[in-house]
Automatic annotation (TrEMBL):
This is Septation protein IspZ. The chain crosses the membrane at residues 20-44, 56-76, 119-145, 151-172. Coiled coil: none annotated. Keywords: Cell membrane, Membrane, Transmembrane, Transmembrane helix. The keyword Phosphoprotein does not apply. Pfam families: IspA.
Length: 187
């Protein structure tokens, strides 16, 4: 469980401000309040890392940017179709960022580093693919099945990512344990 928490923590940090905006928006909190809360949290996270002289990950910068840009767009348009299609735009942007080779390596615990790097890199591309599939699925549901969009957005994005995360965790853990044991046996 400790390794699971180690792997999940940075991902949650990177997307925390975005998650705050999504949750507040889903709870029908006034868009101005949702944008302000998410932006304040995102800015505070980045400022905290900068003050502590820690690097700010690209996904964390992107998450903050998405909250600011799409939050402002939601505020000014008040168009429900934009709100419905907005996740597709976010998924495409996130998927594009995830095409960076090796972006997932920072999520590996120190003991696993060097033992599952190729597998983690491959899963980085799988995650990018999931983001692109999510973008297409969201756009189709938002445009063609508008009445079902709320149920879709409440279930599919989270469920698909949790399932992929769990598959990745089990597969990478098994491969790393095998590699560490093989290295110990050879030594």
């Amino acid at each position: 469980m400790k390794n699971f928490a180690y792997a999940a923590r940075p991902l949650m940090e990177d997307f925390f401000s975005t998650l705050v905006f999504v949750v507040l928006n889903a709870l029908h909190v006034d868009v101005r309040i949702a944008v302000a809360c998410a932006a304040a949290i995102g800015v505070a996270q980045v400022a905290w890392r900068l003050v502590r002289r820690q690097p700010v990950a690209a996904l964390q910068w992107m998450s903050l940017g998405l909250v600011l840009v799409f939050g402002a767009a939601s505020y000014f348009t008040h168009d429900p179709r934009f709100v419905m299609v907005k996740p597709s735009i976010i998924y495409v942007v996130v998927g594009g960022a995830m095409l960076q080779k090796g972006w997932m390596l920072r999520y590996m615990p120190p003991i696993a580093q060097g033992h599952g790097d190729r597998l983690m890199t491959a899963f980085g591309y799988v995650w990018a693919g999931l983001m692109f599939v999510s973008a297409i699925a969201n756009a189709v549901v938002a445009v063609a099945y508008t009445a079902h969009w709320t149920a879709f957005i409440a279930i599919f994005p989270l469920a698909s990512k949790v399932v992929l995360f769990l598959i990745q965790y089990v597969v990478v853990r098994m491969a790393v344990v095998r590699s560490v044991r093989a290295q110990m046996a050879a030594a």
